[in-house]
Amino acid sequence: MQDVDTAAVQNVLEHVPGKPASGHEQQWRALVDAYLPVVPGRSGWRYRPPQRAHPAQGWKLHVSATLPNAITVFQRCAPLLVERGVAFKSVKTLNILGRLNSAIPFGFSQIGKFITVYPRDANEAVELAELLDQATHGLGAPAVPFDRQYRPGSAVYFRYGAFGHEEMETEDGTRVSALRTPAGELVPDMREPGKAIPEWVQSPFAAIVETAAPPTPLQTRFLCYEAFMQRGKGGVYRAVDIQPSPARLCVVKEGRRHGETNWHGLDGRTFVEREEAFLRAMDGLPFGPPAVIDAFCIGEHRYLVMEHIDGEPLLQACADPQKKVALDVALAYAAGVACLVAQLHAAGWVWRDLKPANLLVDRDGRLRPVDFEGALGVHDTSDTPWGTPSYMPPEAKRGAFAGSHLREDLYGLGATIHQLLTSWLMHRDEADPAAQASAEQRPAVGTLRKGVPVPVRQLVAQLMDADPLRRPSAAAAADLLALYGRASLPVPVPATRDSALVRRVRDKMWKDVQEMLLDEPVLGED
Questions:
Q1: Which residue has the higher pLDDT, 243 or 55?
Q2: How far is residue 161's CA from residue 173's CA, in Å, rounded to a whole number?
Q3: Residue numbers of the domain that contains 22
Q4: pLDDT of 516
Q5: Residues 262 and 196 grouped into a single domain
Q6: Within-domain flag for 478
Q7: What count of Cα atoms within 13 Å lies in the side-chain half-sphere of residue 334?
Q8: In the chain, how many domains are there?
């Protein structure tokens, strides 16, 4: 294989025009073209094969990175790996790194796996781990779940795992990557807590000596027992607050330092701190955001403890096009959402993450909003796109932004009402993991459901207009829909089983993701 022309690479890196994200992608393409020549099939990875044959399993090293420092990390690590003739891989695009670090859609175990290194034996693994640790010293990075960290604060992680394609079938019929024990038995290569080093393998790495730390509020007061969600920026957990009598349920939201760090350097901790500020400012207002119970730091991470809302998300009422909710109920939900958004705007805030999944109906029939990490003041501006693609307007996905974000909420209101009325399967807008939604992909309300009043159909179309200036205000939408409002809304009933259509769309998305993630070449000799 040809040596890497580092001078040519550097020339490209120093002459890349364009916006920050697009410029970084061009820089990244120059680097991977030079260092990682193998691009298998539909894989999201690029590879450099070894100069000598590799074993079928062994010690894997993962070098973690954030979007802003990924190019620096790669520039420091790739040359020393090439010099030693070791196989390694990294992402095809930085967009894929962002998705890996979010855990969506590739899974929680993939967070932080920016560079994967395949040492040929234990001695080489230890040597490379030290060199890579020195090369990345001082660069912040997300933790790699279920791996062992090389040392406290390091961006280097390790685990013992399969290098090849050997698989086995589990009891439930799932095929998983497999390892062979010294006796030749196949066992699952599991990405789970405590499974980084199999019991029958002796670690060559020095053990980290952990010092005793004082108990945290998560050990003494707020006892988490169920995860609503886990992703790169942090988890959301149902917990019990044992301080009051009687004890009460609460929700604990975690903001991880370096978790899902964006191009502006904002991470999970930043977003949780932003939500905390919003909730404290909105305490007691009529649209009903959850109350703050407590907030604290553990290490570098921030934890926000909030009121537990006993209810069900509106998404339960509109997630399946073959099980539409009754029209009068859908219109009542739409009226409630419009009224809530109008109240939020009147209070001087923009939500930026309006969607059925973030709207709960509590047991009293009251609509309650959640998830305000992206919230801004009505007159504030941010260059950071925020929200879920299917509910985001075209202008929110174009990078730099000027003026108020209020009209993003208006588009989200239209998309939410559209889904409440039609149960349009939003996954259809996001079938390609690299794609973003567009209004053109979503059929008009009248083509998906008969009987919807003409003024309501027109309102949805206006709210989702590509021209932000043509979208009516939330107050105007609330006035039009007030006729359909109810003092108490029915609590959505969770589906016992998804329809065949939902399963087909979900399974296709998962298959596409797995092909991107798992399409790997055999580590043969160069």
A1: 243
A2: 21
A3: 6-208
A4: 54
A5: no
A6: yes
A7: 33
A8: 3
User: What's the chain's average pLDDT?
Assistant: 87
Q: How confident is the model at residue 15 (pLDDT cuts 50, 70, 90)?
A: very low
Mark whether 64 and 204 lie in a shared domain: yes
CATH number at residue 48: 3.30.2430
Helix ranges (H only) for 216-266 are 217-220
Residue 3: φ, ψ to 5° = -70, 155
Task: Please give, one letter per residue, the 3-state secondary structure of 376-395.
Answer: EECCCCCCCCCCCHHHCCHH
**Arithmetic mean of pLDDT, 219-230:** 95
We report the CATH number of the domain holding residue 371 as 1.10.510.10
Domain boundary among 276, 307, 338: 307
What is 297-349 written as a DSSP string?
EETTEEEEEEEPP-EEETHHHHS-TTSPPPHHHHHHHHHHHHHHHHHHHHTTE
Name the domain boundary from 151, 173, 208: 208
Verify that 367 and 486 share a domain, yes or no.
yes
| Position 112 in a domain | yes
Among 3-7, 160-164, 316-320, 424-428, the minimum mean pLDDT is found in 3-7
Q: How far apart are CA 424 and CA 418, in angstroms?
A: 8
Identify whether residues 386 and 249 lie together within a single domain.
no
Distance separating alpha carbons of residues 321 and 295, to the nearest angstrom: 40
Please report where in the chains the tokens 């399974």 appear, as a residue.
507
Same domain flag for 35 and 108: yes
71: Cα separation from own chain's centroid = 21
- How far is 310 from 266, CA to CA, in rounded Å? 31
29 in any annotated domain: yes
The pTM for the full model equals 0.86
197-213: per-residue pLDDT in tens? Answer: 999 999 999 887 777 78
Instruction: Give the closest residue to 197 by CA, choosing from 147, 154, 162.
Output: 147
